[in-house]
Every structure is written in C-alpha cells, then in structure tokens.
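User: I'm new to structure prediction. If I give you an amino acid sequence, what do you actually give back? Let's try with this one:
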Amino acid sequence: MKESYDTETFKNILIGKGYDDHFVITVCHFGKLGENLNALIKSYQSGGIDREHGLMLFTTSLKADTGNQSSIKCDMCVDYNNGKFDVRRMIIYEEGLSKSRKPIVMDVTTETLPTVSDAIAMANNPELKDTQLKKGIRFK
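Assistant: Good question. You get back a string of structure tokens that encode the predicted 3D arrangement of the chain. For your 140 residues, that looks like this:
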C-alpha cells in the first residue's frame, strides 16, 4: 500500500531530496512550500478547490536558465486525501530557447521520487532517460 504524508513530513521529504522551497501549486498558490501546503489545505477545506478533476499540480524549477541553456523544471501530480499528500507522477521538462528534449514522464511515489540532481541528470542524458522509462529503474 502506498503511504501518504502529513504536511510537515511531505514538505521535509521534498526539501530533503533537494527540491527548493518554492513551488507553484495548482496555479492558485505560489511561494514557499510550507505556506503553500497550508493555504492549499484551507482552500480545500473551505470548498475553494474542486478535487473531482483529479490530482493537483506542483511545479518547481530544478535548474535555472543560465543564458545559453534552457531551464529544467518539473511538475509533480500530487494526491491530497484526508490531510495527507503523495506524489503520483513526475514530468521533467526544459523551458526556454533550446527545448531540444522531450519531457520525461514517470509514475512515482513520494518515496521513489528522484532527487533534484538525479532528475537533472535524467534530463541532460538521453541514454539515461530512455533507460529510466523503458526498464523502470529508479534512483535512490
């Protein structure tokens, strides 16, 4: 059975894997992760968020634009249920001028979510990306 995490634990897991503290969540919340999660819970409890349409989208930058290179970003599809969070899918993509690579889409959980350095390595190395998708090998 997949495990879900309370707000503080979920935030600490993401930060521990190297994700910075700045996310945009379902287009309506942006800023520091802990503040976003609390605002999201309040919106959900007050009926301000309709969960019938599926998972929530968390977006963050993995690597900033360095002039001649695109930035690398990721979207995480996150399930929120009874005060608990769990990542279900991750999409790593380039944003900027070059955009030469296809997005990487992976089904993950909060435990199997790659670290930021592993996600950047997958985005930068096409062979590694293909291996990850075809064989389902996960990073630790």
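You can read the tokens as a compact description of the fold. Here is one thing that stands out. Residues 130-140 have pLDDT under 50 and may be disordered.
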